[in-house]
């Protein structure tokens, strides 16, 4: 494009093909057109006057001012038309009677009227405009408004019905052509097709309110609609109802067949939900395998019946992938949306708690929220713990404690051994025992975060070596792991990296896994244990004897220690069956080459009985209550440091005969 034309475009705030950047640029374009047309009319008048003077013998000539006045607007108008042919907006001009004089190429494409055909036709014929909302014709009104207006006027929400009958959304800028307050010589219209912008806006709006996998509403839109129900309550007998749904077998499908199969399952379940419900009900995917449903203005009895039918449809549904077929269940929490719940979060929390109660009662069932339900009350207390635990983790408000594990047999070396424990510190700086917050942490998947904190802090303290005697280099620290992490490859690497970063010898660490979690995740637990044992870490099977078929699984688990479940130990002197269980576990453990540790030892007679049976180690309140981590070596030196045989905290006497 010629350099002069480029500079003219830039002067108007335009690019060669791009639209005006803002309304000021459009106004500038309209003003330029207005000046050019006005100048052209004035030039024509001056030319006529000059010609008349020449014919009468006046001084006019070919080089006179009249010819220069005629040439200047013609050149300017030619340049402007070149600009109008180049820009990316539709431009239409009319004469004083509202007849079309000019369409640039973009206007021709938009209206489907070629310039020669459109010229001299009424504007309302070529540019058929309607109000987007009322669908009423507005072309004549725009002409009238522009005729009586001094400056450009903008119009949004306008629809063009072009020659082929296609509706196109437009934004218009309209101005009359004329000098000052003089009569209008015509009108110029600049139209911008906003179809692409509309489509992009609609797409962004859809993405902001819908789940990308199922096409259902997402959590944000669901909560917005739930808030809307609080703003427009129904009659008392037709309350709104909220369902919170958790699929029971989704993880199995995801783990067995992959995420593509999992996404397909979510899609099919979403379709099933919509097929079972009314058109007025709202279905949303809240995240993962959780769904929410709003039953609007729905009698509670009908809602219960509809929910049972929905659950029945899920039970009968079969998901097939390749050569595998899966039965899918659902746990559903139901709560009425009434004055009992005052906010969106309270309502969702109530339905979520009811859903968890359905899972605890065996899954694949419906649980209705009742305010006076003791189980629901306990759930609420646990959920309150969730926020407190999360805050404590973010603010590093946890403390380390430990409990000594002493040898009971004289052939056992006096190697210091401690089980590490964790305590939470509340907002006032007081210690909170694990029995208060661990159940909530386990139920709401916060234990992995606590495990990471515990491992990191123990390794840091061991590296610093504060308050440690020479024997500390041989000490063994027992660290509990939650079942959640056994199948997580990332956690395995976390242990390796953290131990390496703090220069911790693996032989100084023994991880504890409960028997129940090991059996539940048998294959992954076995691989997890075997991998870390090969690197030198020890493993103990905690709470052994509490699960079913313990001995049959024991051969497959490569652990070093069996920790006898405390429920057998604490009453073994009074209960012969408990005593026989402890004896049996100890004997089988020894046959398999594993050491045994008795938990919950509360008094000296129990210690003596355990030593007599042949149990290798013991821990419990009868030996030492949990103590601060920093005082561990001091306790061991004081109570276990003298003599070749172990002493108890009770009387510091040898327990071996």
Describe, in plain words, how this protein is organized in 3D.
46% of the residues lie in helices and 20% in strands. The chain has 657 residues and is an alpha/beta fold. It has 3 domains: 3-200, 2-Layer Sandwich (Beta-Lactamase), CATH 3.30.450; 214-371, Reverse transcriptase/Diguanylate cyclase domain (Alpha-Beta Plaits, 2-Layer Sandwich); 386-640, EAL domain (TIM Barrel). Strands 14, 15, 16, 17, 18, 19, 20, 21, 22, 23 and 24 form an 11-stranded mixed beta sheet that branches. It has a 6-stranded antiparallel beta sheet with strand order 2-1-6-5-4-3, sandwiched between helices. Helix 10 packs antiparallel against helix 11 (259-276), helix 13 crosses helix 14 and helix 14 (374-394) packs across helix 15. The termini are far apart.
CATH top level assignment of the largest domain: Alpha Beta
Shape: elongated
Rg, rounded, reads 42 Å
Low-confidence stretches: 1-24, 38-69, 642-657
- Give the quaternary arrangement of the chains: single chain
CATH architecture descriptor text of the largest domain:
Alpha-Beta Barrel
Structural class: alpha/beta
Tell how many strands the DSSP assignment holds.
Answer: 24
Main sheet overview: 11 strands, mixed
**Cα end-to-end separation:** 107 Å
In short:
The protein has three domains: 3-200, Beta-Lactamase (2-Layer Sandwich); 214-371, Reverse transcriptase/Diguanylate cyclase domain (Alpha-Beta Plaits); 386-640, Alpha-Beta Barrel (TIM Barrel), CATH 3.20.20. It has 24 helices and 24 strands.
